[in-house]
Design brief:
Largest sheet of chain B: 9 strands, mixed
Radius of gyration of chain B: 22 Å
Shape of chain A: elongated
Strand content of chain B: 15-25%
Helix content of chain A: 25-40%
Oligomer: heterodimer
Number of helices of chain B: 10
Number of strands of chain B: 13
Distance between the termini of chain A: 17 Å
Distance between the termini of chain B: 16 Å
Shape of chain B: elongated
Strand order of the largest sheet of chain B: 3-8-9-2-10-1-11-12-13
Helix content of chain B: 25-40%
Order of helices and strands of chain A: EHEHEHEEHEEHEHEHEHEHHH
Largest sheet of chain A: 9 strands, mixed
Chain lengths: 286, 288
């Protein structure tokens, strides 16, 4: 069972929700797809880490074979190649590794080299398998790392929590594509509603079953709650804004392990989500 | 014109809150929102007039004509983005297609054509001030290009301005790189949590690669005083100008929910932000 946690924006509490759900589940996998700013491992502190480097293919031009026809430069839609002083220059950072230049070069002067853009770390904490993707600073896209994380050897039957990157762009779509259920986390502000409305469009587009967790709830009017009520969206849980939770979270402690109050909040959230997934499965595949 | 970019490594740290306060305080004549994935600045920068909207075209996407297709499968085999699937016919997954054009170039029967595709919308507000913003269409991936367009749209629309304030994009990837390019200074907003410190270090390392001035402030500093201290020590150690601390303030949430900037109401967070602003502008104006 794959459960994706998303929010439209960082800082809303995706990592809080996914880490604590993974921790209350008896046995689970936690996958951190926020490869630009992975944070889950700071909480779960995995041990026995195995590291795999993730690389992409970058063109390499053999100058002695190049005839200067510029077919590669004209073809490249990303402007990653230029022909300057009788030489093809490759701009690694803008190359999307489509492989077009090497396929099309009439002289077969272009081959590809591997370039490392980041890594995937796999470790374990108690009963939680922790998968973390880390993009190197200065690299443009973490999608190859996310693909590796999600298509890796994790057991698809096991309860898996996917901590998604923020936003609703292609990188998030990649993360939820195979999810069985989506949890949307929302803050009680006008910004929060705007961000929630974007991921709401996204899960509807992908036709995924979903529910909302309202985080940082104050005892004031909650525009995010209003948004859910008006659209008849299932509210799975309300997590209060409280000092103790904030302290635990900012010190990278796992709330469910420190305090029974939070343990029961996340335990009942987990049970609700599992129930939701099962009922969705029976209505779709009776 | 000097350009000040506000970054945080992660959303939710308070970039937009700080940016909107700075815009009010400096009376900036030009500003833009480069968080094209989830723009929020417009929510607190109420515009009295309608925006000029224009479509943003990303790279074209592949389109396959199944009447011409001979099912040779070459396109599917060579697509590095797994954007081509085959059931009875060949289909293109528009979300996965990056528009590289390999399939079009390889197809032996010309069954694939690259077609223009709208990937988002650019908005420009002009009424004494220039406000440039955009919204990426769901699932489009070319946000770095759109960020560059947002900044260019702002620059082209300005008649005269001393200062432009840019609300940056989260993360460290392509849109952030596009946000940093060409600015005079980066102000990093950090949060005093273990996660926040990790994000902060990553964005500092990214920003350093561009050789722009960097300063740092802490938002919600009183939510964890120990981590706040750690950040101050970090700045000291790496000689990063530290420009102040903004407290957590429930009034700030109220202001934002009313569509106001935090310096428009009386609150502690607003007061602290004013000091951060003054120190930041001083550094921005210093010649090196």
């Amino acid at each position: 069972m794959r459960i994706a946690v998303l929010s439209g924006k960082g800082g809303t509490g995706k990592t809080l929700v996914s880490v604590n759900l993974a921790a209350v589940a008896k046995k689970s996998t936690y996958i951190d797809c926020d490869v630009e700013e992975p944070n889950g491992y700071l909480f779960l502190k995995p041990k026995k880490i195995q590291t795999e480097k993730i690389s992409v293919k970058i063109p390499y031009v053999n100058e002695s074979l190049c005839s200067g026809c510029r077919k590669c430069v004209e073809f490249c839609k990303f402007n990653a190649l230029a022909y300057i002083s009788n030489k093809v220059i490759v701009f690694d950072e803008v190359c999307h590794s489509c492989g077009g230049c090497s396929l099309l070069c009439p002289q077969k002067a272009i081959t590809e080299n591997e370039k490392v853009i980041g890594k995937v770390e796999k470790g374990i904490n108690d009963n939680v398998s922790v998968f973390t993707g880390i993009l190197n600073t200065g690299e443009a896209s973490g999608i190859p790392i996310i693909k590796n994380l999600l298509n890796g050897d994790s057991n698809k039957k096991e309860l898996t929590f996917i901590d998604c990157p923020p936003g609703s762009a292609c990188i998030v779509m990649e993360s939820i594509k195979d999810a069985d259920y989506c949890i949307l986390v929302a803050e009680p502000t006008l910004f929060g509603v705007h961000n929630l409305s974007m991921v709401y469009e996204l899960v509807k587009l992908f036709n995924k079953p979903f529910g909302v967790v309202l985080n940082k709830c104050l005892d004031k009017e909650n525009p995010a709650e209003k948004f859910c009520v008006e659209r008849d969206i299932k509210i799975l849980a309300k997590i209060p804004f409280d000092k103790e939770l904030g302290d635990l979270n900012s010190s990278a402690k796992i709330a469910v392990k420190e305090n029974n109050k939070y343990n029961s909040i996340f335990m009942s959230l987990l049970q609700d989500v599992i129930k939701e997934v099962k009922s969705y499965e029976t209505t779709v595949n009776p | 014109m000097k350009q000040l970019l506000i970054l945080s490594g992660k959303g939710g740290t308070g970039k937009t809150t700080v940016a909107s306060a700075f815009i009010k305080l400096s009376n900036a004549k030009a500003y833009s929102d480069c968080d094209v994935d989830a723009p929020n600045l417009h929510l607190v920068m109420n515009q009295s007039s309608q925006a000029y909207n224009s479509d943003y075209y990303g790279l074209p996407k592949a389109q396959i004509n199944n009447e011409l297709c001979t099912k040779c499968d070459l396109c599917r085999q060579k697509c590095r983005f797994d954007a081509i699937a085959v059931k009875e016919d060949y289909t293109i997954d528009y979300f996965a297609c990056e528009g590289c054009g390999v399939c079009e170039a390889l197809c032996p029967v010309d069954a694939i054509k690259m077609k223009p595709a709208v990937a988002g919308e650019l908005m420009l507000y002009k009424n004494g001030t220039v406000f440039s913003t955009a919204q990426l269409k769901m699932g489009s991936g070319t946000s770095g290009m759109l960020v560059t367009k947002v900044k260019n749209q702002m620059k082209e629309a300005i008649v005269y301005a001393d200062l432009a304030i840019i609300d940056g994009s989260p993360g460290i990837g392509c849109p952030v790189i596009a946000s940093i390019t060409g600015v005079d200074m980066v102000l990093i907003v950090a949060e005093p949590s273990i996660s926040g410190i990790s994000d902060m270090e990553r964005i500092i390392n990214t920003a350093k690669k561009f050789n722009t001035k960097i300063a740092l402030c802490i938002n919600k500093f009183d939510t964890n005083l120990e981590n706040t201290k750690k950040i101050e020590i970090y700045c000291n150690k790496f000689k990063l100008p530290f420009v102040g601390k903004i407290p957590f303030d429930k009034e700030a949430v109220n202001a934002i929910n009313k569509g106001q900037s935090i310096v428009e109401i009386k609150c502690e967070a607003g007061k602290a932000t004013k000091e951060v602003f003054e120190k930041t502008i001083k550094i921005l104006d210093e010649e090196i």
